[in-house]
Write a structure and sequence with these properties.
Elements: E1 2-11, E2 14-23, E3 27-31, H1 38-46, E4 53-58, E5 61-65, E6 70-71, E7 79-82, H2 94-104, H3 109-122, H4 138-151, E8 156-160, H5 168-184, E9 188-193, H6 196-202, E10 205-210, E11 213-219, H7 220-225, H8 230-236, E12 239-252, E13 257-272, E14 278-280, E15 290-302, E16 305-311, E17 316-321, H9 322-328, E18 335-340, E19 345-349
Parallel strand pairs: 3-9, 3-10, 7-8, 8-9
Antiparallel strand pairs: 1-2, 1-4, 4-5, 5-6, 10-11, 12-13, 13-19, 14-18, 15-16, 15-18, 16-17
């Protein structure tokens, strides 16, 4: 079983134009900033927004293909949907909420309620079937929404920011639980999110969407090892530059030159991890191949670490301990020396 989709949707002046595929048993996370096209893609796969061109095919069955006039209505698709705010029916009991999709499929009432009860047992809420959604916690409502989506035995499960409405403490707990639930079910799962922690914790593969197009796809390891856009680099908290390599010397776009450990040739991306950046109040001694003077522009404290944005020949972010920041005695506007070993500079073809 698999999902294969080429999706083109135009809304106002925005154009979504992507292709994706995912196999059964896989969770694919679509990750991107606000306005990138995540919700438009979600609605297209769910059948809530017809596509303008392309084709959406699930397990060999075409669900939407404008060129041939095929369009399967949302309620007739083997697709389960978990919305960001869950969209449970407040006047229905928890049990009836879960049974709703089955009743829409003409499953007799007693059978629908029996199957709904089994699903509530699976998500640990078997004793809450007579309650109303308002009587549940945010995490419990999330589990009810998941049970309702699974009740119709979907071949495709869509999750739209499923943890966004939860507080930080609950979110961590439910994220672990949701991962276990996803591993237990079959079919294909598509997770739409802007939170990298959700994507990294729940997905097998990641697709980065920016301005209506996929800019990078792959496993978590592939994406983190070789980011290809500033957005991905920001998510990972690393420095990413583009430049041109001639042997071990790389000229960055701003004209600054750095020396890398491995030779390369032509257009390249350059990755520098903030933890690899050493900072000094005076010019360092020794053998670092890359040393320059800059000015501290910003200091962000994160628990026992501090991230310093440093301007100069090229802007770079360094990460040090808060104790080291105190020892350096630097703040915004102070001059500082940046030092980098050549072996800490990673390059790969652009």
């Amino acid at each position: 079983m698999s999902l294969n989709a080429a999706v083109v949707v135009e809304v106002g002046g925005f154009r979504l134009d992507v292709e994706l595929s995912a196999s059964s048993g896989m969770t694919l996370a679509v990750l991107g900033p606000n306005g990138a096209g995540k919700s438009t893609l979600f609605r297209a796969l769910a059948g809530l927004t017809p596509i303008d061109a392309g084709c959406i095919e699930l397990d060999g069955t075409v669900l939407d293909e404008p060129g041939t006039g095929v369009f399967v209505a949302p309620q007739d698709r083997p697709v389960g949907v978990v919305f960001q705010d869950h969209l449970l029916f407040p006047s229905m009991s928890v049990l009836d909420n879960v049974a709703f999709g089955l009743r829409c499929q003409k499953v007799p009432g007693a059978e629908a309620r029996r199957r709904a009860g089994e699903l509530l047992d699976r998500v640990g809420l078997g004793a809450r079937g007579d309650d109303r959604p308002a009587e549940l916690s945010g995490g419990q409502r999330q589990r009810v929404a998941l049970a309702r989506a699974l009740a119709i035995e979907p071949r495709l499960l869509l999750l739209d920011e499923p943890l966004a409405a939860l507080d930080v403490t609950t979110r961590t707990e439910i994220r672990r639980e949701l991962r276990r639930r996803l591993d237990e079910i079959g079919g294909t799962r598509i997770l739409v999110t802007h939170d990298p922690l959700d994507a990294f914790a729940l997905a097998d593969r990641i697709a980065i969407i920016e301005d209506g197009r996929f800019t990078q796809t792959g496993t978590l390891a592939e994406v983190t090892r070789r980011p290809r856009t500033p957005y991905v680099a920001d998510l990972l908290g690393i420095n990413l530059y583009d430049g041109r390599a001639d042997g071990t010397t790389v000229t960055l776009r701003d004209g600054h030159r750095v020396v890398a450990g491995d030779p390369c040739s032509g257009p390249v991306f350059v990755v520098i991890h903030p933890q690899a950046v050493s900072l000094y109040r005076t010019r360092p001694q020794g053998s670092p191949r890359n040393v320059w003077r800059g000015t501290v522009e910003q200091v962000d404290l994160e628990r026992d670490r501090a991230r310093l944005r440093i301007g100069g020949p090229t802007v770079i972010v360094a990460e040090v301990t808060t104790a080291a920041t105190v020892e350096l005695g630097v703040g915004p506007g102070d001059e500082i020396w940046v030092s980098l070993k050549a072996t800490e500079i990673q390059t790969y073809p652009r």
